[in-house]
């Protein structure tokens, strides 16, 4: 499942630098996560780095992009093949 940044985001600028897949960019009002690039850090870390550094805990699983760990691993492998 890709991740989603909610409207509670304070644009602290911490998460984009922590994303190894470069999936986070500035949206109209708050940062956004590109679901096609988000692997929840599978292939890189044990947990999503963006969630770990977020001071307001505004990053959550995106129910619109439900993926298993195997699917996230396949996405990672395809991006870094």
TrEMBL record:
Output this protein's name. Answer: Ferredoxin
Specify the signal sequence span: none
| Keywords, ordered alphabetically | 4Fe-4S, Electron transport, Iron, Iron-sulfur, Metal-binding, Transport
Q: Which residues form the 4Fe-4S ferredoxin-type domain?
A: 1-29
Question: Known NCBIfam families for this protein?
Answer: di_4Fe-4S_YfhL
Q: What is the lineage of its organism?
A: Bacteria, Pseudomonadati, Pseudomonadota, Gammaproteobacteria, Alteromonadales
One of the record's GO molecular function terms = metal ion binding
Coiled coil region boundaries? none
SUPFAM superfamilies, alphabetized: 4Fe-4S ferredoxins
Q: Tell me its cofactors.
A: [4Fe-4S] cluster
